[in-house]
Give the backbone structure.
Amino acid sequence: MALERLQKVIAEAGIASRRKAERMIVAGRVRVDGKVVTKLGTKVDTFSNITVDGEPIERESLHTYLFYKPRGVVSTASDDKGRKTVVDYFEEIPYRLYPVGRLDYDTSGILLMTNDGKLANKLMHPKHEVPKVYVAKISGILTPEEIKSLTHGVKFDGHKSAPAKVKILHTDKRKNNQIVQLTIHEGHYHQVKRMFKAVGHKVLKLARERYAFLDLKSLTSGQYRELSHNEVDRLKHLD
Ligand code: URA
């Protein structure tokens, strides 16, 4: 979740310039979640309830976008190696967006970008079990036993994956590789790659094609669209 300096949040709400906001804080006119805060640089998040002279400030309106992440882009706001980030695609959007979860640098596909911290936290919480559909090109060909293992859950790094759905989309016996659709609910680091590794196969290419009820129809790589109120509502009510 994005933490921001209190004076910046007040300034962005259009109450005062940042300098003036600092003076308001020092003067004890600002409360965060009911408590007077006079320390400059205090960090607040999107849920913090901020008042100036007892009046709640209007926080940024909330927006969520569906992004078709290309390969070769990092899913963080900044990258110490100077690589292109998902945020770079949203330069025209005046909100501070961040990704809901991560896709690897070399993974393409569906990624939600939002400034709605509450929605992001909800979607990333394992208890909500948002179904995600991946399509992986893997080395070798899965045996029926391996498919069974993936379906029931495999062990990797001391963790057992939850049951997954496996569907073979294409088998290339000559090149000895396979295209496999994997539906999972979890989102551990490198989850799909580690699940295939656990049954002895390397992921050569990976794409996420669905996230809950959302797919990438109508978008090409690098494009995004804002979700409708109805879509955001459906995401909020997933259980
Ligand atoms: N699993 C992975 O291994 N990589 C991703 O990018 C997403 C899921």
The first strand starts at residue 4 and ends at 5.
